[in-house]
Amino acid sequence: MPQSLPLPRPLPLLQADCANCFALCCVALPFAKSNDFAVNKPAGTPCKNLRQDLRCGIHTRLRDQGFQGCTVFDCFGAGQQVSQVTFGGRDWRTRPETRAEMFDVFPVMRQLHELLFYVDQALALPDAAPVHPDLRRLLAETEQWTRADAGALAALDVAALRGRVNTLLLKTSELVRSKVPGRRKNHRGADLMGARLSGANLRGANLRGAYLIAADLSGADLRTADLIGADLRDANLRGADLRGAVFLTQPQLNAAHGDPKTHIPDTLTRPTHWT
């Protein structure tokens, strides 16, 4: 990597563009038969639902067919970055020599794009202004890595980079949540699976990495709560208020259940399966 950072550039697209990807999430990644996937699939093997045109044959029926896991996965745009930038549009089907390396690089790129997503979110928070300069430096460094060649990406210590980013994201969370009046609950990494939290005051709470699978959060106040890494699979968010939630992602919403009374950030989309 060069020692000097580049001038700021537009970030790579941080959402999936399947039309410009070689179906990497459907081929490179493994599936384990579970409530999220109807079948086992080894890494590097195309999903049985993948068509010849690299599109999903059951895309509109994934939940009905037992592939809920596909509806909550997000590559954050890593698929098209690997396909079109790292490998310059070389398709693993017609250029089989790229196959193993491409599939190895994809998970690394996915992590880089996820970090870009979170840092970009942090930079949009005015209360985090004290750490914005450091965030911008890490944003530039991470963005530069997304343009590295396959060999450099395979050798990258992405865990170390993630650790540096996470330190700043923690500071961001603390700065933002410190503006919430009163005592703020700390449930970081807590096992709250199936917890009865209907109507709970969780405003400004620390829910980083919390297990909220099938938790009842109906009517809960989750404004400005830190939800990075929180597992919201089958959580009941009907009537909950998630406005201003810190580091909430679209896949987390897609994994949960909500209704028209659920308040979500303007930057996210109401999932189609919510009733």
From TrEMBL:
InterPro entries: 5peptide_repeat, Pentapeptide-BTB/POZ_domain. Pfam families: Pentapeptide. Signal peptide: none annotated. SUPFAM superfamilies: Pentapeptide repeat-like (SSF141571). It comes from the Bacteria. Residues 256-275 are annotated as: Disordered. This is Pentapeptide repeat-containing protein. It comes from Streptomyces amritsarensis.
